[in-house]
Description:
Layout: H1 14-40, H2 47-113, H3 120-126, H4 130-200, H5 205-212, H6 244-255, H7 273-282, H8 292-295, E1 300-302, E2 312-315, E3 321-327, E4 330-333, E5 342-345, E6 351-356
Antiparallel strand pairs: 1-6, 2-3, 2-6, 3-4, 4-5
Helix pairs in contact: 2-4, 3-4, 6-7
Amino acid sequence: MAAHRRPRQRPPSGSAAGRTAVILALTGAATATAFEGAGHADPRLTPAQVKARVDRLYQEAEEATERYNGAKEKADEARASLDTLRDEAARRTERLNAARNGLGSIATAQYRDGGLGLGPVLQLALSADPDRYLDSAAFARLAGDRQADAVAAVRHELTGIAQVRAESGGHLRELEARRAELSRHKSTIRGKLTAAEKLLARLTAAERARYADGVGAEAGAGDRTGERATRDTAPRGPVRAPNARAAQAVSYAYGALGKPYVWGATGPSAYDCSGLTQAAWRSAGVSLPRTTYTQINAGQRIPRSALAPGDLVFFYSGISHVGLYIGGGRMIHAPRPGAPVRIAPIDEMPWAGATRFA
């Protein structure tokens, strides 16, 4: 019985081979994309999961904001130093020009006086008025001293200008490095905020409103616990604080309630978290550093049990958030983009420490 063999298939050639290769390539790419998408695509998230991810993104954005604030502070310092050095260079250049003019005046006077290149004895012998010559010789000696002083002044100013220019170059390089750092932090902040906005877009309008109110996105519409219950209420009567400066800082913070959060802002129309605390204490005559991680070390560290109104309270392991304590376990703070300055309980975030300035 004859064996049945499958006829040999010829490999595709010409345009058919090209089409086959393209089809196979597209099929493979589509399959790879499908697997990759399945591996990275987010499953259907619950409102609580969206809130948790958005909270994390906002925290990371705030960490980048504080790094941005620190870089900006150093950039401002470098710019101020550079401006000061440029002013000093301009003053030294004016003094150099004056010294050069003085040197030129001496040389011109000597030329007009004549006798250049002749020794003093010969000049005396050839002089028609020896007494006048002796007077002029005394002047020439004085002129020589003046010339030496003028030359020294020129050399001094030239050396000073060279030093100022070298120092200016260092500050200019520092400024350029800080500007590059600012650009990196800006990019990070915007990326985090964009990702947070995309996640929030998955929520319903009511869920987004609850999140903006500081209530969990999974809470019911009637649940208004947490921040909403304590925010936007001014104190009745004078602010209670250990001293006048602390009272002024607390009063300022109350006046900022409802103003928007804007990263990098220090008031008076908008704030980020450290910008608010810096502005509040500045109103009381106390100058604080710009960032959370420098503010925490700028005053006296105190335990949580010793908190008093006016103290700064810090949160997260990276010291990335700060608020102004107002008593009763509450603070005034600038929470995040989309959430205005408000009153909140201090136990809603991981505790990091507290600092007192008055």
